Structure prediction request, 235 residues.
Amino acid sequence: MSATINFSFPVRQLSNERVKLTPFVSVLHASAFFAQTSAYPELYAHMTFGPFADEGHLVDNLAAFWDADPGRMLYAVIDKTQPPSAEDESGALAGVMGYLNTSAANLSTEIGYVVTSPAFQRTHVTSNAIGLLLQYALEPGSAGGLGLRRVQWQCSSLNEASQRTAARMRFRREGVLRWDRVFPRGRTLGKKGHGRDLPPGANADDLGRDTVMYSLCWDDWEQGAREAVQAIMNR
Prediction:
């Protein structure tokens, strides 16, 4: 990704005592992110992107997906409890996540492209990073947020870890979108499909994915989700 930001809403660094989110810039973050994740193709088993053959493949994919669409904004996740690194003076690169499917007209966004490097999984990193994105999206403008109405979360129906994360962060399950995604050549890329038969004429290596839809809306936030999310971040 380039250093040029083309997002629908104002972009700033998001930070608390333990985690910082800063716009992902390929020249700063791509090399370390690829080094941390390239040996773990299973990180991408439920996703429409990855795994990546090399760093150049990663950079090209990020640029194609994130740079042109004002509804998307990718952040590098920095663990501030770690020593300063070449990627960030505040700490160590721990993964990526961002906003996507953002609508300025409908005051909505989605948290996605969540990849936490294996060394930082089951720590404070993921919950704090998601919490920071929720706080910025749902807090009113008077409190420094964007004042959005809806934040959604989508994941594979087979991705139990992502579903647990959504529930823990107080997203509400809305339903299942059947045959929502296609994994082209998914069998050869280590993807996990729903296992049902493909339609006649489909590539035998393709896989289908059902998607579970979750949301956390402004009224949920005001009716207790704000405090619940903060408590999770404080653990």
